[in-house]
Amino acid sequence: MVRLVVVGAGGLVGRRVVRVLGEDPIPDLKLYLTGYSESIGKKVEFRGESLQITRTDLRLLKHADIVLLCTPAEASVELVQEIRGGPVIIDTSSAFRMDPGVPLVVPEVNCDEIFAHKGLIAGPNCSTIQLVMTLYPIYQEFGLSRVHVTTYQSVSGAGYKAISELETSSFDFIATGRANHGEDSVFPHPIAFNLIPQIDAFQPNGYTREEMKMVNETRKILGEPDLPISCTCVRVPVFIGHSEACLVETEKPPCLETIRESLNRFPGVVVLDDPPNQVYPTPLKCQDTDPVYVGRLRRDLSSDRGVLYWAVADNLRRGAATNACNIVKALLRGEKT
Ligand SMILES: NC(=O)c1ccc[n+]([C@@H]2O[C@H](COP(=O)([O-])OP(=O)(O)OC[C@H]3O[C@@H](n4cnc5c(N)ncnc54)[C@H](OP(=O)(O)O)[C@@H]3O)[C@@H](O)[C@H]2O)c1
C-alpha cells in the first residue's frame, strides 16, 4: 500500500491533485488530505468516497510514503524542515526549486532527475512548465539560441482568494462603473477589466520575481544554465488558464513543419493551429484539461532563425497538479527513461 498525504488539499492545486488522482488511479493508494484552517473539516470526493480534510499532523506526514505539498512557500519550508528524512516530499511551491540539491522536474522533459532525489523533489512554476514542454521538442530538433516570452496569467495562479477577488470586483465594476481595490487585495491594482504587468515583487534588475523564476527554472530544467531568455509576466482577468506568446530562436535553421510535428508528437502537447478557421488555443477552451496547446505557429519576420507561437494550458492542472501527480507515478514506477 502507498500512503500519500496531500497537504493543502482544500486549495486550488490540492483539489486538482485529488481530481487528477481520481481520474487515473494509482493501485493500492491510501490517500490522506490535510489543510491548515479554512479547509479543515471539508469533504472532498475521491473515487466514490468522501474524504475529510484534517488538520496537518506531523506524525501522519512522517509516517507516509509520499507527501505532496500544495502549500504556500513559507509553509512548505516549515513542513520540509520537520519531516525531511521520512517520506519522499514533492513540493509544488517555489521554496526549493533553485536549490542545487533538489531536482526540479517536468517528467516529460527530465524524468531521470527524479531518481537523483534526496528526499525532496520540486515542481516548477506553472508558466515554466508549459513553456519548457513547448521548448523541449524544438530544443531537441534545432537547439535554442534565444527565448523571449510574454505571459498572460490567470488569477488562479495566485490561489483561491484571487478567484473571489476577480468575481467580486467584476460584479462591482459592472454595478458601479468603478474599480474597487481594497487594502486586503491580492493584486497591486484592480484586476477586473484590467491588465497588471507585475506578478510578485520587482527585483533590482527591473524584472519581477515571477519573471526571474521562469528564466532560472527553464535553464535548470533544460540543463542550459546560460540559455539567453527573458520574459514579461502579465496578470489578466481570466479565471483559469495561462497563455504565453513565445519567440524562439534556434541554433540550426528552423523548419516550421518539423516543429509542428515534433510538438504534436511530444507527450502532453497538442497543436491547435488552423488560423483561417479561427482555430488556436484560448484559456476557456483549455480549462479542466491536461495538455499544453500550441497555435499561431509562424516564422519571425525580424530574424531567419526565429519562430513564434502561442501556448495555453490550465495552470492548475498541467501547471501544478498533473505535473506533481506524474512525478508521483514516475517515482512509483521506479523506472528511468
Ligand atoms: N495556483 C497555481 O496555478 C499554481 C501553479 C504552480 C504552483 N503553485 C503553488 O502551489 C501552492 C498552492 O497554490 P494554490 O494556488 O493551491 O494556493 P491556495 O488556493 O491559496 O491554497 C493553499 C492551501 O495551503 C494550505 N495551507 C496554508 N498554510 C498551510 C500550512 N502551514 N499547513 C498546511 N496547509 C497549509 C491552505 O489550507 P486552508 O485552506 O486550510 O487554510 C490552502 O488550502 C503554492 O505554493 C503555489 O505557489 C500554484
Outline:
The protein has 337 residues and is of the alpha/beta class. It has helices spanning 12-23, 58-62, 73-83, 107-110, 126-142, 160-176, 209-222, 256-265, 283-286, 317-333; strands spanning 2-7, 29-35, 43-46, 49-52, 54-55, 66-69, 88-91, 120-122, 144-153, 229-235, 242-250, 269-271, 292-299, 306-313.
Describe the structure.
- This protein is an alpha/beta fold.
- The chain folds into two domains: 2-124 and 320-333, Rossmann fold (3-Layer(aba) Sandwich), CATH 3.40.50.720; 128-315, Dihydrodipicolinate Reductase, domain 2 (2-Layer Sandwich).
- 33% of the residues lie in helices and 23% in strands.
- Strands 5-2-1-6-7-8 form a six-stranded parallel β-sheet, covered by helices on one side. Strands 10-9-11-14-13-12 form a six-stranded mixed β-sheet. A two-stranded antiparallel sheet has the order 3-4.
- Strand 7 (88-91), helix 4 (107-110) and strand 8 (120-122) form a beta-alpha-beta unit.
- Helix 1 packs across helix 10 (317-333), helix 5 crosses helix 7 and helix 5 (126-142) packs across helix 8 (256-265).
- NADP nicotinamide-adenine-dinucleotide phosphate is lined by residues 7-8, 10-14, 35-40, 56, 70-73, 75, 92-94, 125-126, 156-157, 159-160, 315-316, 319-320.
